[in-house]
Amino acid sequence: MQRSRTSKETVKRVVLIDDHPIMRHGLAQLVRAESGLDVCGEAGSSREGLEVVGRLKPDLAIIDLTLPDKNGLELVKDIRAAHPGTQCLVLSMHDEETYGERALRAGARGYVMKEEAADNLISAIQKVLSGGLYVSETLGARMLEQVTGSARNKAAGIDSLTDRELEILTLIGKGVPTKNIAAQLGISARTVEAHRAHIKEKLGITDGSALVRHAVQWVENPGRA
After folding, report:
1. Rounded CA gap, 189 and 196, in Å?
2. How far apart are CA 155 and CA 33, in angstroms?
3. Where in the chain are the domains?
């Protein structure tokens, strides 16, 4: 049941960016049930999300990583660059072990797994809007280890890929042809091929077929590739 709001209460405005309407509907209900929060806009793609944030100037944008036109990490970077007054919180089905730190490096102030949204989303929103950083205890401990120097091993495997390389690996795993990847990301086919070469080098893969197999495995089982 939605709580009543007094006229003196400052309501924080939230934008939801997720390509699933049913998910946005559920999130909107969850957010609006909390006193002091309201959903002022929604979007189903990165392009729409950037436009809505620019038009409405919300306090917070809740962003899914898997969007039809651009990776959510790139959208976080775009929003933080163009609209620094809007904080970003990533809400994703992807495991935080791979994407949590990437989201924070991109400029997000928190990362929440979708399966934990019912229990943790409101706490994460409040933490971020109060100027804090929201991560799970596991991710927080991992970040602390890196800061204190107890985890200085050189990144390997998937962790060694840049955000763009990981995005391209995911698209390869979904069967998207090179020319379509180039069009979707707004880069040339030659640049895509260069990224493919870097990915193969970092993952120790020698041929294109093996890269495709690895990419498919990554998409199907992110934690095992």
Report:
1. 10
2. 42
3. 12-145, 157-220
**Does this model's pTM top 0.90?**
no
Tell me: the pLDDT tens digits for 127-153?
A: 999 999 998 877 777 766 666 665 445
The C-alpha atoms of residue 162 and residue 195 are separated, in whole angstroms, by 10
Ranges assigned E (strand) in 124-191: none
Q: What Cα–Cα distance (Å) separates residue 154 from each residue in 98, 159, 160, 222?
A: 15, 9, 8, 20
- Burial code of 123-132, b = ≥16 C-beta within 10 A, e = fewer? ebbebbbeee
- CATH number for region 157-220: 1.10.10.10
Amino acid at 62: I
Dihedral sign for Cα atoms in the order 46, 49, 54, 58: negative
12-145: CATH topology is Rossmann fold (3.40.50)
Give the sheet arrangement for strand 111-113, strand by strand.
Answer: 37-43, 12-17, 60-63, 87-92, 111-113
Model confidence pLDDT, tens digit, residues 34-63: 999 999 999 999 999 999 999 999 999 999
Written as six digits, the tokens of 14 are 């939230």
d(CA 174, CA 168): 10
Q: Which of 127, 158, 133, 117 is nearest to 18 (CA)?
A: 117
